[in-house]
Amino acid sequence: MIRNKFLLVTLFFIVWMLFFDNNNWFYVNRLSGELDMKRNEKVWYEKEIRESERKLHELTSDLKALEKFGRENYYMKKKDEDVYLFLEEPDSTDRSH
User: Fold this and answer.
1) Labelling 62: which of 20, 24, 38, 46 has CA 20 to 30 A away?
2) 40 phi and psi angles, rounded to 5 deg
3) Is residue 87 part of a domain?
């Protein structure tokens, strides 16, 4: 009889902790997955920050790079130049319109 009581209480405790407690196994598992996702995002953002800092340093220290950036991204030109933009036509197989 005593062994059954201990067994029942232990079983009840395990079931309670797995399913009904505020910090149950499913909740902790979901939080662990979110933590992994946030760590991956952190690594990605750190890489992007390093790349942006590299580009900023390049643009502030090299005038040719700054001119190239202005021409490519903002279509800037010199007074005696013409700028031609070549736009791609939409794919003819795309029937979403």
Assistant:
1) 46
2) -65, -40
3) no
Q: What is the pLDDT of residues 61-76, one digit of tens each?
A: 999 989 888 888 888 8
Per the rule left: phi > 0, alpha: psi between -120 and 50, beta: everything else, 71 is alpha
Residues present in the chain in total: 97
Q: Name the band, by pLDDT with cuts 50, 70 and 90, for residue 6.
A: confident
In a domain, residue 85? The reply is no
Residue 33 located in a structural domain: yes
Number of domains into which the chain is organized: 1
Count of CA atoms in the C-beta half-sphere (13 A) of 38: 6
Q: How far apart are the first and last CA of the chain?
A: 75
Residue 76 has, within 13 A of its CA and on its CB side, a CA count of: 8
Q: Which residues span the domain enclosing 42?
A: 2-74
